Amino acid sequence: MVQDFLADLVKSIVTLLVVIDPIASVPIIIALTGKMEKKQRTSVSNVTIVTVAILLFVFAFVGSTILSTFGISIFSFMIAGGVLLFLVSIELLTHGEWRFGSQSLQDESGIVPLAFPLLAGPGALTLVILSFETYGMWVTIISIAVVLGITYAILRSVSPIYRLLGKRGSMIVTRIFAIIIAAFAVQFVIDGIKQVFH
Description:
mainly alpha, membrane, transmembrane, UPF0056 membrane protein, transmembrane helix, cell membrane
């Protein structure tokens, strides 16, 4: 029984880690927080990981109920996430940072777009719902906790990259990855629309 539990736990952790893919978010974090001080970047990392934790745990326990109650499909989240990402990419290309009106968003960058839709996106939210139903509560809770720990460690490792790039290098990287974010956004919307009309 212990072996089965451990086998399920490993499968759940690996699958969730692959879907969340925190390493792939590192360039986007650089793009979003390139003009921030180290303290502000730390704050964004903290807000991001807390938001991701809330989303994953809430969806694991009551996600299917929430979606069915409001008649919302997970693919609607995918399309909405794509639209949000596209808006972010436009801001990064035109202003060099993620802003709203005349106010620069700092901690809020940890919510949109880092926590949702990049890390706790439709795939991750769907996966924790399935994990809860397939493997049970404890496997799901432990796997989420482990993946959150790994993700946070990766988020906090971004500072050395800033030191290597310097201010000018970070600005160049921001513009380059803004285009990649736009491509992510378009793909999110395309995939969501495909699933809706499948």
